[in-house]
Amino acid sequence: MTRKRVLSGIQPTSDSFHLGNYLGAVKQWVELQEEHDAFYCIVDLHALTVETDPTLLRKRTLVSAAQLLALGISPEKSTLFVQSHVPAHNQLGWIMECLTGFGEASRMTQFKDKSQKSGTDTTRVGLFTYPMLMSADILLYQAHYVPVGEDQRQHIELTRDLAERFNTKYGQTFRIPEGYILKEGAKIYDIQEPTSKMSKSSGSGSGLIEIMDTPEANAKKIKSAVTDTGREVKFDLAQKPGISNLLTIHSALSGKSVSELEAEFEGKGYGDFKSAVAEVVVEYLRPIRARALELLEDEKHLIDILHDGAQKAKEVAALTISDTYKNLGMVL
Ligand code: TYM
Predict the structure, then answer these.
(1) What is the pTM of this model?
(2) Pocket of ligand 1 (CB under 6 A)
(3) Distances (CA, A) of 310 to 24, 89, 172, 323
(4) Paired residues of 41 in beta bridges
(5) Strands annotated E in 2-64
(6) pLDDT for 173-195, tens place per residue?
(7) For residues 139 and 68, what is the distance between their CA atoms, to the nearest angstrom?
(8) Which residue in 166, 162, 141 sits closest to 88, CA to CA?
(9) Ligand 1 pocket check: which of 129, 151, 182, 202 to mutate, most ligand atoms within 8 Å of Cβ?
(10) Are strands 37-42 and 178-180 parallel, antiparallel or unpaired?
(11) Structural element, H or E, at residue 146
(12) Strand order in the sheet with 37-42
């Protein structure tokens, strides 16, 4: 039986991934590569939708690759590549733009949020068409599943709509993908502001746990995480968002269930609990950061892995482009 296909992507917009990226997405990427035909891409074209610095973009693309490998993505099991190495993404991106209604694109909540923050003059057209390029990323590989965090749900819905629309109008061309969004961990919150999602574009950064940060810095951040009124370590998103978020993080990394943790910390204070969370996070991330730093010392090796991945990705993507063009009536 052929293995089901998985595709996902991550933006190289920061010097480090954060725990939300890992628990919401990359942890599932690592698990899924065992039984699936997995394609994972570093979406550098998407990163251009906001102001970028060439030195930083290059550095962050390589740091992203190093982190993905250190987190457990295996180049033998998965196809790991950089989006811009496979020009078919742009080719299909344009087709998706020509299939999307202006109103439909205007309803994308991520675009609305980001453009409201920066105003229409500085908002790039690329930010508006971002979801159509993301649809192209997914549909090119005929993916069955797309492992992402909760914040990407609407983009996956759009992708499904566009694929169905195309298939109905022009004949069967694309597989309709499904989001692979976990119940636990699909939304990790900022540890200083536990009602907002953990995000690189939020606040001061003190609410963000970063993979490439030093163990000491992360321990300090977790020990000063915001907690809630009361004393009990109990999962209650409405009344105790801070503690609930820390419980989710501990549970995802230690493998203990939330109820086991509640029992373990019964009668103990928030201070003890935060120290335990700090310990779990720091010890989990310590070898990953070390491995990523080691991989970054050999840039050529990293780039070779990405080029090999792009080669495999190009072959699959070319098949979809030729079917798409043929079905659209383009002369081949
Ligand atoms: P990006 O780069 O913002 O984030 C990468 C992944 O991390 C997840 N994530 C979170 N999950 C839980 N809690 C959080 N606080 C949190 N913050 C981020 C995101 O949901 C995502 O899965 N548009 C995508 C990149 C992309 C893509 C694709 C994804 C481009 N093409 C094709 C899948 C398929 C994005 O901006 O992810």
Answers:
(1) 0.97
(2) 7-11, 20-21, 24-25, 43, 46, 134, 137-138, 146, 148-149, 151-152, 186-188, 197-199
(3) 25, 12, 26, 20
(4) 9, 81
(5) 5-10, 37-42
(6) 999 999 999 988 789 999 999 99
(7) 22
(8) 141
(9) 151
(10) unpaired
(11) strand 145-147
(12) 78-82, 37-42, 5-10, 145-147, 178-180
Closest to 81 measured CA to CA, from 332, 318, 308: 308
Q: What Å distances lie between residue 304 and 30, 72, 101, 125, 313, CA to CA?
A: 20, 18, 40, 33, 14
SS3 229: coil
What's the CA-to-centroid distance between 159 and ligand 1, angstroms? 15
Assigned token pair, 61:
């693309």
Segment 218-223 long-range contacts (CB within 8 Å, at least 24 positions apart): 218/278, 218/281, 218/282, 218/285, 219/278, 219/279, 219/281, 219/282, 221/191, 222/191, 222/246, 222/274, 222/277, 222/278, 222/281, 222/282, 223/274, 223/275, 223/278
Beta bridge partners of 226: none
Of 200, 268, 312, 314, catalytic: 200
CA of 8 to the centre of ligand 1 (A): 8
State how far the Cα of 137 lies from the Cα of 159, in Å rounded to an integer: 10
Torsion, Cα of 93, 98, 100, 105 (10° steps): 70
Mutate to test the pocket of ligand 1, among 148, 156, 181, 201 (most ligand atoms within 8 A of CB): 148
Question: What is the rounded distance in angstroms from the CA atom of residue 60 to the CA atom of residue 183?
Answer: 29
Question: Which residue is it, tokens 């022009």?
Answer: 170
pLDDT tens per residue across span 102-154: 999 999 999 998 888 888 888 999 999 999 999 999 999 999 999 999 999 99
**Residue bearing tokens 């992360």:** 218
